[in-house]
Design brief:
InterPro entries: Alkaline_phosphatase_core_sf, DUF1501, TAT_signal. This protein is an alpha/beta fold. The protein has twelve helices and 21 strands. The chain is globular and about 75 Å long. The N terminus is likely disordered.
């Protein structure tokens, strides 16, 4: 009779026999990893700390809105209109002069938050008193592509994971039939294109999914008429067997192949789920009108904002909408008037809609550009160019819901709007704060790549406590 236990060559048995210290720790990690893999990379994960927000909707005004023309009034700049500027003497060719804002300003709501008189719908107290205006952020780059990459990925160089990729990496998604990270743009992509919502060095599961602004939001969303769901299911099952066999033959985990396999399954599930989410005919006419779908100037952005509400309502973790045309080096009044009119009603409707549905308190809305604008401009060929240059030392952004202060102005710029002077923080601190509101610790939300653990803030940052309610 053999009294010795039978030797088991499995990994679990080997690790277990190492002892109660290293072996049990390794076994626990192994089981957890296998359980996570079985659940799927986008399965919901608990936050690292108590979270104030579950979802994020980021409204990105590409080009850089003039902060002194939107939410940061500068009476002194108005007084100096068309007078010589000494702010950057000798740094740029041409005579520089101050440019006062072409707009008046108003204090709205019980909070008295300030905004220019072009904002009609956002000025409604029901909406305005939900806003938090942060005036202390500073960017690093004056170039659009670099600044866009920095605001959207934490790196000016491009190629790093987007904000939504980090959020879904840390928290997963609440709906396995939809992408965790969705992006909507105009027909023209923002500078840097998909580099603004890439998965970067994170596994491919976390890349943003772009919904097209015209036609079918996703190509091939509808199956060909001669293919039934059952036929597609059988074909996918056979393909999965072939891919699994190939994966095992590689001898090591191949994330690209695994992600491709998962993408086939997600696409199959999306064919059932997405049509219902994007079908706006289920909304009341009152809701469609509220978002501005009845007017050509607001129809596109309004449709995207309404889609954003439906997406987060369906469990999508991070939604980003890009609106271009804010780079007003010339014709400031005409350009900003048009741009504000195109987003004012949809933005107000989004906040109102989420608030009425009880979703605003755990949905964080962010309105921002990649940088701010200068208080002066060049006089070219003897003609006053009534616009503004790029300014990485001062900018303004709005937030609402998701645990930020209501009806608050945080930080300040100098009397001309040239530089932030109060509650001054770099973009990395803004990112750390965003993740903190989602219940994620930037110092712990890391990924091993190229020999070191990388994080959204690059090398760490601090939470902007003044923004948090």
């Amino acid at each position: 009779m053999n009294v010795h236990p039978q030797i088991n060559d499995s990994r679990r048995s080997f690790l277990y026999q190492l002892g109660a210290s290293l072996g049990s720790v390794a076994l626990t990690n192994l089981l957890a990893s296998e359980a996570a893999a079985a659940a799927g990379p986008l399965s919901p994960k608990p936050p690292m700390m108590p979270a104030k927000a579950k979802n994020v909707i980021m409204l990105f005004m590409e080009g850089g809105p003039g902060h002194m023309d939107t939410f940061d009034p500068k009476p002194e700049l108005t007084r100096l209109h068309k007078k010589e500027s000494k702010l950057k003497a000798g740094q740029e060719a041409g005579f520089k002069f101050f440019v006062g804002s072409p707009f008046g300003f108003q204090k709205v709501g019980q909070s008295g938050i300030e905004m220019c008189d072009q904002w009609k719908h956002l000025a409604d107290p029901y909406v305005a008193d939900e806003l938090c205006n942060y005036r202390g952020c500073q960017a690093e780059s004056l170039n659009h592509p670099e600044a866009l990459f920095h605001m959207n990925t934490g790196s000016r160089l491009g190629g790093d994971p987007g904000l939504g990729a980090w959020a879904t990496y840390g928290l997963g998604s609440e709906n396995e039939n939809l992408p965790g990270y969705v992006v909507m743009t105009e027909l023209a992509l923002p500078q840097g294109g998909a580099g603004n919502w890439t998965n970067g060095f994170l596994p491919p599961y976390y890349q943003g999914t772009r919904l097209r602004p015209t036609g079918s939001p996703i190509l091939d969303l509808a199956s060909q008429e001669f293919k039934s769901r059952e036929h597609q299911r059988r074909a996918l099952d056979e393909l999965a067997q072939l891919n699994q066999s190939h994966l095992e033959s590689l001898g090591a985990e191949d994330q690209r192949l695994r992600a491709r396999m998962e993408s086939y399954e997600l696409a199959f599930r999306m064919q059932t789920e997405v049509p219902g989410v994007i079908d706006l005919s289920k909304e009341t006419q009152q809701t469609l009108d509220m978002y501005g779908l009845n007017a050509p100037e607001t129809e596109t952005f309004g449709r995207q904002c309404l889609m954003a509400r439906r997406l987060v309502e369906s469990g999508v973790r991070f939604v980003q909408i890009f609106s271009g045309g804010w780079d007003s080096h010339d014709y400031l009044e005409r350009g900003h008037t048009s741009r504000i009119k195109s987003v004012d009603r949809p933005m107000a409707a989004l906040i109102r809609d989420l608030k009425q549905r009880g979703m605003l308190e755990d949905t964080l809305i962010i309105w921002t550009g990649e940088f701010g604008r200068t208080p002066d401009n060049n006089k070219r060929g003897g003609v006053y160019s009534l616009g503004r240059g790029h300014n990485n030392n001062a900018m303004t952004m709005l937030m609402a819901g998701g645990g930020v202060k209501r009806g608050a102005i945080v930080g300040a710029t100098d009397e001309l709007g040239a530089s932030a002077v109060e509650c001054v923080h770099p973009i990395r601190d803004l990112h750390v704060t965003l993740m903190h509101l989602l219940g994620l610790d930037d110092n712990k939300l890391t990924y091993l790549h190229a020999g070191r653990y990388k994080q959204l803030s690059q090398f760490g940052g601090e939470v902007i406590k003044e923004l948090i309610a």
